Amino acid sequence: MGDEPPGSTTYLYAFGEAHDDLRAAFYIDERADSDPELAQSVVESAEAAMTRAGVIYEVEVASGATLTGVPTWEEFKQRHFVEGVPLPVRRPPREPVTPPSWQTLIAAVREARRDFRAELVSILAAAVPDGGASITSDPGAARRSPGSVDPSEERFGFEITVSAGLGAADPVTALSSVSDLLEQRGWRLTDRAAGAPGTDASSSAGCVAIGADRRLFAVWVEARPSKITLLGRSPLYRSPAEPGSAFVVEPR
Q: How is the chain split into domains, by residue range?
C-alpha cells in the first residue's frame, strides 16, 4: 500500500446496529477528485455526517480498490441527508435497557448447552463404544439473528458437533444404533437429514444420514466409512422487553 500514488485511496464505510454485524453503506474514492485537498474534505464531511447520525459505523481503507454494488458518498448523502430517507439502521440508545429476563436467559442457555453436549456424547458413546466419541466443534452460544440496538430483538442459539470413529464397522449399522437411542430418548426421527447444514450427505458415496427433532432441538446424524458425526442445533432464545416477561424459546 505504501507504493500507491497519493489520492488513490478508497474508503469503504460500513454501518449496522452491532459492531460485529456491519454492512456496506457507501464508499469514497479519492481518484474521483483530482485535488487531494478536496478529496480529503469529502472524507471529513462524511465522517462528520456519520458522527452526527450517531449510528455504529467503521471505515475500511484500501489502496486502488474498485467497488461495485455500493453507493458512492454523494449518492448516499443525497438519499439520506438531503432527501431525508431514514437510515436503515438505528442509533444506539443513550442508556441501554437490559430486558427483564436477560440473566435468566443466560442461565437457561448455559444449562441447555451443557445438557445437550452431554446427551450427544452419551448417545454416540453408547452407539459406538469403541469409537472414542468426542466433541469436535462447540463454539458456544452466540447471536443467531441480525444485530440490534435493542437486545430484546436479538436471538441466541448454539451448535454442537460430536464425532466418533467407526473403524471397519458398517455405517448403516452405526446409524441404526444411534437412531434407536434417539428414539428411546424421545427424539422424533425424520426419513432423511432434510435441512442439514453443509453438503448433502445423501450424495456422498457410502454415506447415510438421518435427522431428528425434540422440543425444538434438532440433530443430524451422518455416518460414512470410518466416521459417524452428530450435529446438534438448539432453538433460538429471546428476552422480550415487556416488564415482568419471561424469556421465550423459538424454532429456527
A: 9-82, 102-250
